[in-house]
## 1
Amino acid sequence: MTPIIRVINPNSNKHVTEEMSRALEPLRYSTGPRLECVTLEKGPMGIESQADVSKVEPMLAQLIQSDSSSSAFIIGCYSDPGLALCREITDRPVFGIAECAILTALTRGSSFGVISILPNSVERHIRHLRERLLHHRFAGDRALGLTVAQIQNDKMTFGRMKKIGTMLRDDDGADVIIMGCAGMAKYRAKLERILSVPVIDPTQAAASMAIGVVALSN
């Protein structure tokens, strides 16, 4: 039986779920685990504050507890909501996309920068880095000033991503860029071509790790 990796979008924006699934297409192959993306139907439209993070944590734990068919789970939000809780309530692997993106960035360069959605995201991201003792490899975190829903607008978003990415590279010294929201997935390849540094999509980073873990455990 083909193992399943369940990729959970903790917000209720199905467009974000669809973009995540499209970003994972290069990682789907006939003999590998199935990557299934699902939406947390009762979640907020975007995880944009600590209150949003706290709201979805028990929902994520309940969803994982009720799922008996998946071999591993990916929490598809750059705040990694409920990561510790979900790991506590299951013996199956649970991956947070922020943690995986940071670990991937450490293998691609010496200093990484993060493109966030809103200014209040920056403080939350920096706190997570300090908790993981990784702030010494951190170049900077700059916000687009856009909500999760707004970043789906290509004309509004990509120009800002290019500007912020250039600042992280040239002013802050980042030689790797992490996109700090799962909803940014469709911009990764184009942004990497323009900036000429590695650009990490966090959902792809988490799925790559999850595939390896699941494949080696079967």
Note: Strands lie at 4-9, 34-39, 72-75, 94-96, 112-116, 138-143, 176-179, 199-200.
## 2
Amino acid sequence: MRKIITAILGAALVAGLAGCSAQSTQQADSKYANIESELNFTERDMDASYDESTATVIDLSGNTVAVTGEGAHADGSKVSITAEGTYIIRGALGNGTVDVNLPNDDSSAQLVLDGANIHNDAGPALQVNKGDAVYLTLADGSENALSDGTGYALEAGEDEAQAALYTASDLTINGSGSLNVNGAYYHAISSQGAVVITGGNIDIASAEDGAFANGAIKIGGGDITINAGDDGLHSEYLLYVADGTVDVQQSEEGFEAERIYIYGGNSSIVSSDDGVNASQAEAEKETSESDAASEAPTAPEGNMGEPPAMPEGEAKQAPEGPRPERPEGDGGKSPVEGQGMQQPGGPDSRQENAPDIDDAYLIRINGGTLTVDAGGDGLDSNGYIEINGGTVLVSGASSADDSGLDYEYGATVNGGDVILIGAAGMAEDFTGGTQAHLMERVSGNAGSVIEVKDSGGNVLVSYVAPKAFQAVTASAPGASSISVR
């Protein structure tokens, strides 16, 4: 993300950052006012049971389909599901699609994949065009696959259904079987609503995002592996990891959303740019850029936008005086060697007009394990970062203007075992919190072991560096020093 030098957030804000912050009087006007109520999973999300005796069975065979039961019909290699109910899908479809159009926007259906392999050369293998929610259950012991081709047959103005698995509704994936989703054209999974995963062994490969959602992405279980050309998991709103395993093996940015909450589970990320990025939704960025372009002044006619000519013999002069230097209190970015332990709290130097944490972009880590190997910033927020627990081991870029930690307004640490490493030039420390934190300009190479120790020399947390680094920011209960070996 673009670096913006900011002042340090101090003690007056710390109390509001600790733990899951209570709603403030300002929060009523925030788009995130009810976000805490979304940090859950329904019984239906978790329930992978179904009654085969009453379900409609869809048998796929090459380019033909046989339907037994009501609510679905086949036309060549296209299956249409038009009623609520449970549908069991088996077999292979070489070039076709399962298309779900439920009766109304309040309708839901359960699709059970039980050894289904569906490929569509020119569109989604499975798409939901109408309905409130679809529950995609992976039958116990089953192996399933959804894939698309590299070219789509899109109608004029159509640009949404660009994924091997596309839904206009909310989507829940549960069960204990396996699913391979290969998005060769664009995204692997895309939803105009939410994407919820509570079970299954899911292997995702995509040309763009592994999973994209206009609503929330919520992970409550399962084992998920992602190799993405762009973001591993991208939500325009909320990305929430409560349980399960998420292994982003390849991405440009691993996790991206306006708000990212990691409360449990085991997440690992490899990215060419930022590892975990809390930033403005893509749709809002496009709107802002469009508005800015429309308001940009135009050059007067006749001069082709060229600057006025300078009088003859008058050379352009640089302004007098020393070059402006970067102000102190720059959000913790400091190349100073041996900065040492920072005590909780400190003077209140919050940037003037900075938004309240309840209104801003946020990365919040309350538990679980997060490991990041990023080519850009490891943890990057256009607002705030808050770590209250868990194990957080992060490697940012080894050089240039990125490092392990980057934030716009402040970062607090109130618990957890934390080691963040990266380049020294733009390295940042935490701005406060209830747990002591340290920042040192120390170097190491791939394979170096960083250890955070207490005052008695006992190792509290350690991290094997995946690549070279020149700065370490760390925190742990009782932390007193950092060493590298």
Note: The longest strand covers residues 108-120.
## 3
Amino acid sequence: MAALGVATYSTATVALYNSWYRDYPMGDFRLFNDNREWLQMDKAGHVFSSYFQTAYSCDVARWTGLSKKHSLITGAAIGLLSQTTIEVMDGFSTQWGFSIGDISANLAGAALFVGQEWWLDQQIVFIKESSLPVRYDKSHLNAVGGGAYSTLERRATELFGPGLLERALKDYNVQTYWASIDIKSLTHIKAWPSWLNIALGLGAQNLYGGFENKWTEGDATYDLNSVMPRYRQYYLSLDINWRKIRTKNHLVNGIFNGLNIFKMPAPAIEYSNKEWSFHLLFW
């Protein structure tokens, strides 16, 4: 298992560097306070990533025959090592910096999984994600003072990349993070299906910069702070706990376990901008 872990970690680290950091200059290690960036959606992403990496690493450790205690230690170590590697790379990048807030979110995600397994021997609250990339508007945006124009599509490509996979991973406008709650285990209501969870979601819209919707392209400045204000979105929805759906086929059960990091499309109630809305099928 140790050899497999080293190989997986090394491969993932190289892939991460090539996809995220290779095109940006590196410098001296530095700290960076990004706690106000992206309306904290990036912090929710760190909680999610650390949670599911810890969970799956723990599953693999248990499969190899390790005890519950040592599986939890191994899972948390792998999950936190993966996330800390990203933070160290950020620390040496002139584009970003080492974030104490990110490290805290990573610890929270790992602690949520380990704490529930240790004291409850199960997960009552699962951290999940849903994401559906969108096409951004190509209408002209005039620069401050005129003389130049850009588009939301150009800005999104600069921030989040051109590909669908890149945008699914980086675009906070299309990501929603969920706390999916096992109602059956929490309340012991006999009539409640064991596989049906209630999910609380967090999203955001109009994020075209880390701290504000203002940027420069060449000598031109664009400012959308007044016309496209940033805002959070809060959701209430239903979800499937795939770990409670068991079959006699180990492969199918493994697929179900893998699906459990994603929030399933379902009806949802949204509250944002002091208004309520209903989604018949929210992705």
Note: The chain has a mean pLDDT of 91.
